[in-house]
Design brief:
mainly alpha; 70% helix
Length: 430
């Protein structure tokens, strides 16, 4: 019932976004996903990552067959496109085969499986399609933000960012100094965040085929909830980012061409500014930071190489979000608090709500709300008193992290049964 309800809610949400996208003359998440059955996919890597998630329910032999079928189908598509001279239109020349395999697994589940085996295979298919739908949904949300929010709040965040020392301007100059090599490396890390998440998720789901059940909590759940809730904050707090509001990429809409050379001056009280109907308002909070933080958290229980990879991806993502001018420093602080609160809520839901979990989630929500209110109502005070508000921002974020670590450690300690002591034998004198 839970899976069925979640599926119906997700379908209704996708239909609503499809209708909203059609109002602006572009395909929504459903049509866009259906089109990739034939047309060149936007991200072939993502489709193969989705197929990998589906394959966690398959046996080793079935996985070999699935991968072989996907590669074979992609080869056929490649030959046909070459023969008819079809354009890729900025898409990838591969990936259709992976989507065909996922859909094929759904058909097999309905027609050839029964009982628990059918449910398990459908869960695997749903997991893969949900990750893909999340990506398509995100693209549609970004379009909606640009069309429905003509005014943006960048001057407020630019002022508040003085409390942290304008990190976007600082890191932007550093990335620029590294030249094209550093920029290309960071761009790859930034663009392939979903693939990194799949690697961690595959480790967490490695025993599904043997145990014939999914773990109660894993990274994909956190990823999907972040993607579901985050765009709603975009609508409340529309921001385009320093490279657009204060850089050359903003064109004539930019306040000034300052990024990354000169931080915006503290002169007058900030106000809303108009912006184009193309650039997404997707800065507050930084969802790339949120997702990278989730990867870091979930990689902590993996082997050493996975923990190192999770740490690297978090650092590289934070560097890219700031260094490319996509986010202000205050966006990242909000993104970390956002993720830790969601992770705490999902783990509380998994184990059953208790007082510690309820207090932690309530505190995280309160801190996140306080951050948004302070960015909107106190930007000038934050800019004029960085010695006070800078440490307060970091302390607020650190307090949520500390609360999460402390609470989850207590949960894990309680979950380990106490070791029973050996009975003591008394010597009986004869």
């Amino acid at each position: 019932m839970l899976w069925a309800t979640a599926g119906l809610v997700a379908l209704g949400f996708l239909i609503a976004l499809e209708i909203a996208a059609r109002r602006y003359g572009v395909p929504g998440p459903i049509i866009s996903q259906v089109q990739e059955v034939i047309v060149a996919p936007k991200s072939g890597f993502l489709l193969y990552a989705c197929m990998a998630l589906t394959m966690v329910v398959l046996t080793r032999r079935q996985r070999f067959i699935a991968v072989g079928a996907a590669i074979g189908i992609d080869a056929v598509f490649l030959v046909v496109r070459w023969a008819i001279g079809a354009e890729l239109n900025d898409g990838h020349p591969f990936g259709n085969g992976a989507l065909w395999v996922i859909l094929g697994c759904a058909v097999i589940a309905v027609t050839r499986r029964t009982g628990q085996e059918r449910v398990l295979l459908l869960k695997g298919v749903g997991l893969g399609l949900l990750l893909l739908a999340g990506r398509k949904t995100g693209d549609t949300w970004l379009l909606i933000t640009s069309k429905t929010r003509p005014m943006v709040l960048d001057p407020y965040l630019a002022a508040a960012d003085h409390a942290l020392g304008n990190p976007s301007w600082l890191v932007g100059r550093i990335v620029t100094a590294t030249g094209p090599v550093g920029a290309h490396a960071l761009d790859y890390v930034y663009a392939q965040l979903a693939v990194a998440a799949v690697v961690v998720a595959l480790y967490q789901l490695r025993n599904v085929a043997a145990e014939r059940r999914f773990p109660r909590h894993h990274l994909v759940r956190t990823f999907l909830v972040i993607g579901l809730l985050g765009p709603g904050i975009y609508m409340i707090f529309p921001v385009v980012g320093p490279i657009f509001a204060y850089g050359a990429d903003g064109g004539h809409w930019a306040v000034a061409n300052l990024w990354p050379d000169l931080p915006p001056p503290i002169s007058a009280a900030p106000h809303e500014i108009p912006f184009d109907e193309i650039t997404p308002r997707n800065c507050m909070p930084s969802l790339h930071t949120a997702w990278a933080t989730a990867i870091f958290i979930h990689s902590r229980r993996g082997p050493r190489v996975l923990r190192y990879a999770g740490t690297f991806w978090l650092i590289a993502t934070l560097t890219a979000t700031l260094g490319f001018g996509y986010h202000y420093g205050v966006d990242l602080v909000a993104g970390v608090v956002f993720t830790v609160t969601i992770e705490a809520a999902l783990r509380s839901l998994e184990r059953g709500w208790d007082r510690a979990g309820t207090q932690l989630v309530t505190y995280g929500v309160a801190v996140f709300a306080a951050l948004l209110v302070s960015y909107r109502c106190l930007p000038m005070e934050m800019a004029e008193r960085p010695w006070l508000f800078g440490p307060l921002l970091i302390l607020a974020m650190a307090s949520v992290i500390y609360g999460y670590v402390r609470t989850t450690t207590q949960w894990e300690t309680q979950a380990v049964p106490a070791r029973q002591s050996e009975p003591e034998h008394e010597l009986v004198s004869g």
